[in-house]
Amino acid sequence: MARALGSRADIFLYVAPVALIAFLVTLFIKEVPLRASNGLSQTAKAERTP
Q1: What is the DSSP secondary-structure string of 1-50?
Q2: How far apart are CA 28 and CA 13, in angstroms?
Q3: Spatial separation of the C-alpha atoms in residues 48 and 50, rounded to whole Å
Q4: 13 or 36, greater pLDDT
Q5: Could you tell me the CA-to-CA distances from 22 to 14, 19, 33, 48 in Å, in that order?
Q6: Which of 21-25, 30-34, 38-42 is predicted least confidently?
Q7: Which backbone phi and psi does 4 adopt, to 5 degrees?
Q8: What is the mean pLDDT of the chain?
Q9: How far apart are CA 18 and CA 24, in angstroms?
Q10: Which of 7, 10, 24, 40 is 20 to 30 A from 30 via CA?
C-alpha cells in the first residue's frame, strides 16, 4: 500500500513543471480588450444620431 501512495504522489512531480510552463505561457498571450459598450447602448446611440 505504501508503494501505491508513493506512485500517486509521483504524478505531482510530473505535473507541477507542466503547470508552471503553462502559467508562464499565459503571461505572453496578447491581451485583447473587451468591447467598451454593449449592444443596447450602441443601438440607443444610433437612434439618437440624425
Answers
A1: -HHHHHHHHHHHHHHHHHHHHHHHHHHTSPP-PPPSS-HHHHHHHHHH--
A2: 25
A3: 6
A4: 13
A5: 13, 5, 22, 47
A6: 38-42
A7: -65, -40
A8: 81
A9: 10
A10: 40
Residue 43 is placed in which grid cell?
443601438
* Amino acid 23: pLDDT: 97
Q: Which residue has the cell 510530473?
A: 14
Give the total residue count for the chain: 50
Confidence of residue 1 (pLDDT cuts 50, 70, 90): very low
Query: Nine-digit cell at 21?
Result: 510552463
